[in-house]
Amino acid sequence: MREYLKYLKGDRVIWIITLLMLAFSLVSVYSFVPILVKTAGGTPFKYLFKHFTYEILAFGAMFWIHKKDPKYFFQISKFGYYLSICILIFTFFFGVRVNSAGRWVQIPFINLTFQASDFAKLALILTISRLLVIKKDLLNNWKEGVWPLMIPIIVICGLIVKDNFSTAALLFLICFVILFVGKVPFTKLLSIVGGGLGALTLVVSIHLLAPSLNLLPRFDTWVNRIMNMNVEEGEDVLMANAQAMNAKLAIYNGGVFGQGVGDGKLKEYLPEAYADFYYSSFVEEFGLVSSFFLVLLYLILLFRIFQIGLKSESMFETYVCIGIGVLLLIQASVNMLVCTGVFPVTGQNMPLLAMGGSALIMTCVALGIVQSIANKQNKGKNEDDKKSNKNDLDNNFEPEDKED
Predict the structure, then answer these.
(1) φ, ψ for residue 379, nearest 5 deg
(2) Has residue 264 got a pLDDT over 60?
(3) Under DSSP, is residue 348 helix (H, G, I), strand (E, B) or coil?
(4) For the chain, which end, N or C, has fewer CB atoms within 10 Å of the first or last residue's CB respectively?
(5) Domain annotation covers residue 381
(6) If pLDDT is split at 50, 70 and 90, which confidence band does 399 have?
(7) Which contacts qualify for 328-333: CB closer than 8 Å, 24 or more apart?
C-alpha cells in the first residue's frame, strides 16, 4: 500500500478515505440498483460498469489536479465562474428534464448527462474565496467590498433555484459560512440573510399572483414535500410521501447489524436508493453500527480538510478548503437527515458513495484541489527540513579556532 501511496502526494488520510469510499461505492451501487433495472431496464452489471467508468474519470481528475500549484486555481476561478453561468443558462433553456426538473446537460456523442449545478458549486466557492482576498480591506464598504461578493452568489443561486431549490439554498449557506470566516461584518451578514429571504418572498409572491409566468415550476412539489413530511394519515398523503416513508422503514429494517449485502428489501421500492436515499439503503444492508463508522469517516475527512486549510499561509487556500469541507459535510448530512425524516425530500446524494457522474467527478475535483494545497505545504516543509539539516551540518563541520 505504501508503495502506491508514494505516487499520491498531499494528505495520505484523505487519499485512503477517498479510495476506501470509491471501492465500497462499487459494491453498494451494484446492490442498490434493482429499482433502476426495473424502471429503466438493463442489468446491474451495466450500471456497475457505468459507475466504474465515472470513478476512473473522477480519480484521474483528482490525481491530475493534485499535482498542480494552487495558484492556478486562483487564476482560473474567474473563468470558471463565467463558464458556470454559461452552462447554467444553457441548462435553463435546453437542459434535459429528469423527474420534471431540467438540471442536466446532455453531452454530445457519448450519451451522458452532466448536472450543471455540480460544476457551479465549486466554481462559486473558488470565486468567493478569490474575491475575499482581493476585497479584504473593503469589507466595510457595501459598494466596493460587499456587493462584488454578493453579485456572483445572487447570479449562481438565482440560476439554480428554478429547478433545484435545495441546492441553491445550501450553496447560499456555504457562501455565508465562507463570508463569515472571511470576516465580513456581522451586521452586513444579517442584512444579506434578510435580503435573501426578502428576494425569495418576492419571487414566490410573483409566482402565486402570476402563475402563467411559471417562475418556479417545481413550487408545488416543494410545498407538498414540506407539508406532507410528518403527516402519516390519509391515502393521498401516503402515496405522495411513500418514498420518504419507505426510507425510514429501510433504516428500521436494517437494525443494528443490517440485513447483509444484497439482502435489503425496501431498496426495491426507493426510486433513488442508489443516490438521494443512499443512506437508507446503506443502513438496511449494513446496519446502524456501520452507519456510525460512515459518519466517522466523513468527520475525519472534514477534520483533515479544515486542518490543511488552517495550516495554509494563503487566505485564498484557507477559504477554499473551508468551503469544500462544508460542502461535503452538508451534502452528506442532508442525505442522512432526509432519509431519517428530519428534512423534506431533496436531491442531495452521498459524496463519493452514491451513483452519479457529475457529482462524483466534481467531488473528486474538489478533493484534488485540497490535495494540491496539502502537497504545496508538504513541499515547503521538506525544503525547510533540508535547509535546517544543511545548517546543522555546516555548524557541525565549522573549524574550531586555533590558539596561537
Answers:
(1) -65, -45
(2) yes
(3) coil
(4) C
(5) no
(6) low
(7) 328/298, 328/301, 328/302, 328/363, 328/366, 329/298, 329/302, 330/170, 330/173, 330/174, 331/170, 332/298
Q: What is the DSSP letter of 271?
A: T
Q: For residues 224 and 218, what is the distance between their CA atoms, to the nearest angstrom?
A: 10
Phi first, then psi, for residue 167 (nearest 5°) are -65, -40
Looking at residue 241, its pLDDT comes to 62
The CA distance from 30 to 95, in Å, is 28
Domain assignment present for 2: no
Angle subtended by helix axes 278-311 and 315-339, to nearest 10: 160
Domain with 352, as residue range(s), is 8-372
Residue 78 to residues 182, 232, 315, 347, Cα–Cα distance (Å): 19, 48, 17, 27
Average pLDDT over residues 343-351: 83
249 vs 240: CA distance, rounded Å: 16
95 with 103: CB under 8 angstroms? yes
Q: Give the integer Cα–Cα distance in Å for 370 and 309.
A: 8
Instruction: Say yes or no to pLDDT of 290 above 60.
Output: yes
Set of cell numbers at residue 318: 484557507
Is residue 60 a part of any domain in this protein?
Answer: yes
Provide the domain count of the chain: 1
Is position 117 within any domain? Answer: yes
